[in-house]
Design brief:
With 222 residues, the protein is α+β, with helices and mostly antiparallel strands. It contains five helices and nine strands; from the N terminus they run H-E-H-H-E-H-E-H-E-E-E-E-E-E. The protein has a seven-stranded antiparallel sheet with strand order 1-9-8-4-5-6-7. A two-stranded parallel ribbon has the order 2-3. The protein is globular and about 45 Å long.
Length: 222
Amino acid sequence: MGRHMRISTAAGVAAALSLFGLDAAAAASFPQNGEAEQARHFAPSYGKTLPPVGFVRFCVRNPADCRPSGWSPRRAFLSADRWRQVYQLNSYVNARIKPVSDAELYGAEEHWDYPSDAGDCEDYVLMKKRYLEKLGIARSALLITVVLDERNEGHAVLTLRTEDGDFVLDNRRNEIRRWSETDYAFLKRQSARDPREWVSLSQEGVTVSAVTAGGAGAPEDP
């Protein structure tokens, strides 16, 4: 696969984390159950919208990574140990990959790919999604998501859909936060039913140039 990193088993992922020197103690802040306002824990969606152009091109090159799993969409149930693994993996990828723009790395805009040692926000997301799938988390619980950051610029994060709510894995921090506890405006993400389809997370249908296009409609799922 050339510049793509190979991780073929859950044991391989665990070994990579161990070699990197990450231990479970670093993940002591994994999320807990029992918080108030349960409805706010799940990001609402507002119908189908257009996928980012970089994602479309990625799927053309990697069709197997964009196919539906064949199972009904489901949220992940994560034990304390599994939360620690997720936290460790997020920290590992954040430290492993150097942040570099597509223009610098590929000489083009919006080129999504699995990184080897450098990439932009979408590349971090793709690697985390692949690793977490190898650990046994359902594809329908791992959704690429487009947001507007504090500077009103487009940014990509990975949404982890759990029975306790939607959480965000971000290359800008190792802490894993609930979607509602970030400073981002959520625009769109992959559909849990079909990863090739995207749903709007904004009723206004905001458009971000070269990153995403907006849309709105009926809710997709809880």
